[in-house]
Input
Amino acid sequence: MTVRTRFAPSPTGFMHIGNLRTGLYAYLFARRNKGTFILRIEDTDQERKVEGAVEMVYRTLKTAGIQHDEGPDKDGGYGPYVQTERMGLYKEYAEKLVELGGAYYCFCDKARLEGLKDENGVHTYDKHCRNLSDEEVKRRLAAGEPYVIRQKVPEGVVSEYEDMVFGKISVDSADIEDGILLKSDGLPTYNFANVVDDHLMGITHVIRGTEYLSSTPKYNLIYDAFGWERPCYMHLPPIMKDATRKLSKRFGDANFEDFISKGYLPEAVVNYIALLGWCPKDNREKMTMEEMTEAFDIDGISHSSSIFDEAKMRWLNGEYLKAMSQDEFYAVALPWIEKAIEGKDYDKRELALLMQTRVDILSEIPEKLAFLNNFGEYDLNMYVHQKMKVDKAVALKAVKLAYDSLAALDDWSEEAIKECVKQGAEAGGMKSGQVMFSMRVALTGEAVTPGGAIEMAIVLGKEESLRRLAFSAQLLEKAQ
Ligand code: GLU
Output
């Protein structure tokens, strides 16, 4: 058997990481088994359709590195892959199911259904039209009466299946309503469309969220009524934003594309979400897509929900950044560095070197480099460091000394600057730590900086460093 899995998003908004994880697992399972991964757009709910959401699905999958083998843009002979383009099919199959005895026409109007509601406003259909005679049905159809087609759930059976994650799931048919398969407008409900599509597209493994776990016995009865082979099922527990609430696109939670624009690497996000609900046998955390494909196994899928922890994802992203070559990091950091320097003439490569080990996500770069632009009046109390025995007078001496030593230096390299400041300190009778500390504050105007004095001097360059030292000396002089 060739494994065929599918990802069937509804274009009703952005894609949060819970949806994407479903797609990722279906993809990994297909790849692991040398099977085929299919993208199907489930857009029958036209009322909830959001403009641009289909394009977003393509973009997200592409960015995430999840490549479908078949889909609306890649015909594999099982199309169309967009539900609204399959409309004729559903009607045809619903009518066929009526002939096979698995469904029936229902002419009940709104008013009648309203009357079936209980005190909570919920109605369970009372099977009123289940046993209409063929003649009556024919006559009413010919008269153009509006109708729906309902599932004829067999009575007195228990519908059972073996979920690959949750084990045996069984539902008594008495608890299954004769639900609508084809609506009065001729469009299918999800309940019907997913069965017809999965069958016609040859899906062998249905991988989706646990919200469908207990409806699946009902879907299986449709497969049975058609005489079709049921697929295997793998239902995935939800991803929560905290102990009680699921991630929800309605509340704007955890949108994949938002993370990318915040400066997360797609591969780090994908790696992190793979671990939300699955753990490889060797408990590895950092994995490429290839490694995940190799390691993906059903035994590692968790039965319980997982909590989305952005701090953990951030940490993992930082690990990805640190593991990059300098060139790779430069390439991804460049837009953020350009944003940080606001068109000024700093050495972008040096800034990238400084940042690579100091940020977890790329959007931290402009914050960390804000000192490049924000230099000006500042709080001179920053110079006071009791442990190092630095006060404003000592700082003034140190800053002047740094200026004088560095002004004569031509080689603006780490080693040379270090040696120069050290010698200057010795000659001036100061501790090199005192000079370094004062110099760092003088160069940045900040108490906390992304690097030490020498790194700051390097990213600023000689001219700017001297300008800042001179300016700081003036400020300190005034404050004596
Ligand atoms: N369109 C459904 C959803 O977005 C997919 C359900 C399924 O995979 O069967 O929830």
About this structure: The radius of gyration is 33 Å. Residues 8-10, 42, 194, 208, 212 surround glutamic acid (CB under 6 Å). Residues 86-236 form a domain with the Rossmann fold fold (CATH 3.40.50.620).
